């Protein structure tokens, strides 16, 4: 998964980005969805580390 759009109706308009604070490093970042507050949000770097770091 990640930040890629999959299929759907994609056009050339830029995505609406939302400010969030990374749950790992506490750095402010922009994410392509509106955080709901019930799940942690990660910056691109921490998201990649978590995805690659394994379960």
Task: Give an overview in words.
This protein is an alpha+beta fold and 55 residues long. 18% of the residues lie in helices and 15% in strands. The chain has one helix spanning 44-53; strands at residues 18-21, 28-31. A two-stranded antiparallel sheet has the order 1-2. A hairpin with a 6-residue loop joins strand 1 and strand 2. The longest helix is centred in the C-terminal third of the chain and has 10 residues, at 44-53. The chain is globular. The mean pLDDT is 83.
What are its keywords?
55 residues, two-stranded antiparallel sheet, 2 strands
Care to give the gist of this entry?
With 55 residues, the protein is an alpha+beta fold.
Overall structural class, as computed from helix and strand content, comes to: alpha+beta
What is the strand arrangement across the widest sheet? 1-2
* Largest beta-sheet details: 2 strands, antiparallel
Report the uncertain regions.
none
Number of helices: 1
Radius of gyration: 12 Å
Task: Please provide the count of β strands.
Answer: 2
Measured by DSSP, the beta-strand proportion falls in: 5-15%
Helix content: 10-25%
Shape: globular
* Span between termini: 15 Å
Give the SSE order as H and E letters: EEH
- pLDDT averaged over residues: 83
């Amino acid at each position: 998964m990640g930040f890629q759009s999959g299929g759907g109706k994609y056009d050339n308009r830029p995505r609406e980005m939302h400010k969030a604070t990374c749950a790992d490093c506490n750095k402010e970042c922009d994410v392509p969805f509106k955080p709901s507050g019930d799940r942690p949000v990660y910056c691109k770097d921490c998201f990649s580390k978590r995805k690659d770091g394994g379960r």
